[in-house]
Amino acid sequence: MPALTWDEICADRSLADLPYKIETNRHGQIVMSPARHLHSRQQSDIHARLAKLSTSGYLLVEAAVQTTEGVKVADVAWGSDAFQEAHAQDETLTAAPDLCVEVYSPTNSKAEMQEKVVLYFAFGAKEVWVCDMKGRLSFYVSPTTVSEVSALFPQFPAQVVGQQ
């Protein structure tokens, strides 16, 4: 099957009800990750906590970002008012929101998550968070630097709901 554009993938009704998050790789091939209960709980917890802390900007769930390595979908994202104004018409974001959050699933590798961190920063993210299976957050302030607290949301806890 030839590679599809992101718009073609989004328009394909046969892909609409899959219980998977869909991304693409650099070759335009579809990559799917099965949804799991813990992943959904962590994603929801992070979104809810960010909603309480953000006084401006816009929160996103499943934010599709076009990168040089395909479309990557941040589990949770926050964009400033300026970001939202600049990208309001994007079907697929052409830049990464100010904050991109990735939540580990059992199928994710450390290399895959690190690649996403690098890509989000390369496409304009100011901060990237990675949530592990135990709910511990790593606050990346650059592709290689992890801070103990978030620069964008310093009140955000370093731990959310996790695997017992």
UniProtKB/TrEMBL annotation:
Q: Does the keyword Hydrolase apply?
A: yes
Gene3D superfamilies (UniProt xref): tt1808, chain A (3.90.1570.10)
**From which domain of life does this come?**
Bacteria
* InterPro entries given in the database record: Nuclease_put_TT1808, Restrct_endonuc-II-like, Uma2
Give GO MF terms, alphabetically.
endonuclease activity
State the organism of origin: Roseimicrobium gellanilyticum
Domain named Putative restriction endonuclease: residues: 20-136
In this record, what's one Pfam family?
Answer: Uma2
Would you tell me the protein name for this molecule? Uma2 family endonuclease
Protein keywords: Endonuclease, Hydrolase, Nuclease
